[in-house]
Amino acid sequence: MKIRYLLTAALALVSTVVFAETYQNCHFVSGSKSYCAGLFTGDSVVFDQGSYKSCHFVSGSKSYCAGLFTGDSVIFDQGSYKSCHFVSGSKSYCAGLFTGDAVILIQN
To answer: Could you count the other beta carbons within 10 Å of the beta carbon of residue 108?
Structure first.
């Protein structure tokens, strides 16, 4: 019986590691990800519970979110990364392929 519980615990741990999600600061060229440079700590905009919000991150993990976002941010939109405008947590429009640095979710 103990072996079964140990195997279940080991499987849960492996699943957590395999499907880990982290936020990283990445560089983009013409809408495509070029490279990423480590785990992100700071504030960024992410899609959270059905709308875009300004959230705080520590070592690549989301710590908390603080309301609906209004402004400009980079998102993955229709197959490439674009600079988009948001109003009250909803995407308003996107303006071309993005070149520069932005924070994105990396799913391992």
So the answer is: 8
